[in-house]
Here is the input.
Amino acid sequence: MFAEAIASILDHHCTPAGVRAIEAGASAQPLAAAIVEAGFLELLAPEERGGGGAGWPDFFEVVLLCGASAVPLPLAQTMAARLLVADAPSLPAGFIAFAPSLARGVDGSLQALHVPCARTASHVIGALGDVLLLLPVAEAHQLPSGVHGSLGASLRWPAAAGRVLQGGARAADLAPLAALLHAGLLAGAMKRCFDLTMAYANERVQFGKPIGKFQAIQHQLSVMAEHVAAGRMAAEAAFGTDARLPALPACAVAKARTSEAAQLVASTAHAVHGAIGVTEEYDLQLFTRRLHEWRMAHGSEAHWHRVLGRLFLDSPQPLAVDFVRTVWEGAPA
Here is the structure.
């Protein structure tokens, strides 16, 4: 029900043409207003606080939609912030991006590198040591990523900027949560790339028949489908929890597997499409650019593989299969 309602809004207000316009500098306010007016920012908030009371499995479908529509707002992050911060009513209006690795400069300034959707966010929740800070984007100096169409940016605030978030929020929860959200976004965008590629392979005719009938193309599409499915399964498993927040190992697996798949899915999509896939007018590049950007957001597969390796080495389990089983059953690793 939630996914269908949000899909309807995105179909009307988040078209590929609209995404291109926002990337080029147009205001995201019409899209933002449609989402806010529908009340979906409170999707994960408890019903007793006027929220939707949705669980993580329901939220997964919403995050998939955000990825499949290349939503140019930190929509999933803003929804998840209501769970991350126990005192959610204290959060400001607007859209919130995540920065799990804040750092102090030599002059005392606060710095956040490569914040996804920083250009369309009003605030950033960042982790500095054991503290979560809420920082207004309007007070930050922005350095664009330099990547064509990217809405991310590196931000720098004065030393005294922002306020500490109270109410039991844990800074250690921010990095795995941010990574998991991008795993869901990657899963949605990869499925969209696969659908576009399948449609093109069945439409493009060469030597008298669709290129999708050639065995070499079929092999590429089969491998692509395997990676799309594996990425979605890893992300869906991590979202399939009734805990307040998903566990670190599940988040690590989800981000590692989807990031690993993103490279192959993007390269295969462009290989099958040929030159048309990189043109501005064709939709594919909207999604493959995000695959490359989201793959690196909050840690690539290499980072999360190292995290999983440390968890395994520190666990009492002698075999990897026992470690995985223990983690997924919810017992201490």
Notes: The longest helix spans residues 174-203.
